[in-house]
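Table S5 (text form). Sequence records supplied for joint modeling of the two-component complex.
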Amino acid sequence: GAGVSQSPSNKVTEKGKDVELRCDPISGHTALYWYRQSLGQGLEFLIYFQGNSAPDKSGLPSDRFSAERTGGSVSTLTIQRTQQEDSAVYLCASSFFGGVGTDTQYFGPGTRLTVL
Amino acid sequence: DQQVKQNSPSLSVQEGRISILNCDYTNSMFDYFLWYKKYPAEGPTFLISISSIKDKNEDGRFTVFLNKSAKHLSLHIVPSQPGDSAVYFCAASGSGGSNYKLTFGKGTLLTVNP
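The corresponding structure-token record, covering 230 residues in total, follows.
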């Protein structure tokens, strides 16, 4: 079946602009995660959605970052007034039921964001 | 502070030999550990995991060892194949109530030479 898909694959923007990154999780997966990987770093947790529960936004680095998940499926990560330090690969993952580390997270290919 | 550390940025081995990738962690609350493999321009893919109640888990050519007292785990690949060349990330979960959060190391680039 289809895996996690993300769009766009690459995004170049100017400092101060807003960007939207999209994630389509695996069908039937109730949990969705966003991570980012800055150059030379490991993946950093950003936000977690599970079903209709309130999302865990504890990893979002600033209030310029927000995310939503519509209809329990597609998710959009929005970064307002982008800064150069936002340049990174943004990865989305989904899992079947979430809630525990043993529930395998399947990652998309990521969106490479470059802020000039 | 880095809670999961992969101190070797890169490793090069000959085809057919053993590859050993190491990972150290500092958070004693972690109770589940995973290895992910990542090829360029692709997302990480799950490889193997181990629960803190075990000290070894094997899946084909891949074995993960956990030493809780040393807060150390390692991934052994035997025999190594050129297709194993990728970045390997160690990850951990189980810290407090948010155990769906994975904490990742920075990764180790493995190159298997034919």
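Note: The mean pLDDT of chain B is 94.
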